[in-house]
Amino acid sequence: NAGVTQTPKFRVLKTGQSMTLLCAQDMNHEYMYWYRQDPGMGLRLIHYSVGEGTTAKGEVPDGYNVSRLKKQNFLLGLESAAPSQTSVYFCASFPSGRTYGYTFGSGTRLTVV
Amino acid sequence: AQKITQTQPGMFVQEKEAVTLDCTYDTSDPSYGLFWYKQPSSGEMIFLIYQGSYDQQNATEGRYSLNFQKARKSANLVISASQLGDSAMYFCAMREYGGNNRLAFGKGNQVVVIP
């Protein structure tokens, strides 16, 4: 099915470990976004990309890195995980030239202990 | 500065009643879009309705309508004839056309529909 796929769906990390979250979309969307959702905070933008090979910082970028080497994939990396990064992470994509039509992944629940 | 404000505490709504969720926004961009999303307990983000800043009429989608008051910078969601399946968290979001299509979200409103 066309859409946004996030891998993994769940993960438990120890403090200081690293990991990469993968977001893959098969809709040829130009724009891709990583958000984190914490209780009572809504969704906050971490990083985003306006096209292959581009990345930019969002509202809460510290502690995360991203890469978009291929148009369909947007990777979110945690180099040294901290308990404050315990959250639910959502990826979203959006096509250029549209007024609406964001597609969200199903989320990754990450716990850092 | 917070761009989207949702301040209502959790709400209990009687089944078949209507419910209004408040959303105010802040932007200096004349071109923007407003969205409402539903997040049930299963966690996925479900798009409900969209309103463009230049749209003359309030948006409607089935039982959902958006009460858009541009001068007051408010975009309230109205859910008519509530159903048990409407129990969820609801998020208001804004896209500023000059902002690389980024969506800024409010903190959400929790709605519980009771039979």
N- to C-terminal distance of chain B: 39 Å
| Poorly predicted segments of chain B | none
Mean pLDDT of chain A: 95
- Shape assignment of chain B: globular
Question: What's the end-to-end separation of chain A, in Å?
Answer: 34 Å
Q: In sequence order, what are the helices and strands of chain A, one letter per element? A: EEEEEEEEEEE
**Molecular shape of chain A:** globular
Helix content of chain A: under 10%
Put simply, the count of helices of chain B is 0
Biggest pleated sheet of chain B: 6 strands, mixed
What would you call the quaternary organization? heterodimer
Major sheet of chain A, described briefly? 7 strands, mixed
Whole-number radius of gyration of chain A? 13 Å
Number of helices of chain A: 0
Q: How many extended strands of chain B? A: 12
Percentage beta strand of chain B: over 45%
Q: Determine the strand fraction of chain A and express it as a percent band.
A: over 45%
**What structural class do you assign from the helix and strand content of chain A?**
mainly beta
Radius of gyration of chain B: 14 Å
Number of strands of chain A: 11
Topology overview:
The complex is a heterodimer of chains A (113) and B (115).
Chain A lengths: L3 E4 L2 E4 L5 E7 L5 E8 L3 E8 L6 E2 L7 E3 L5 E6 L8 E8 L8 E2 L3 E5 L1
Parallel strand pairs in A: 2-11
Antiparallel strand pairs in A: 1-3, 3-8, 4-5, 4-9, 5-6, 7-8, 9-10, 9-11
Chain B lengths: L3 E2 L5 E4 L4 E3 L2 E2 L6 E8 L6 E7 L7 E2 L2 E6 L4 E6 L8 E9 L6 E3 L3 E6 L1
Parallel strand pairs in B: 2-12
Antiparallel strand pairs in B: 1-4, 3-9, 5-6, 5-10, 7-8, 8-9, 10-11, 10-12
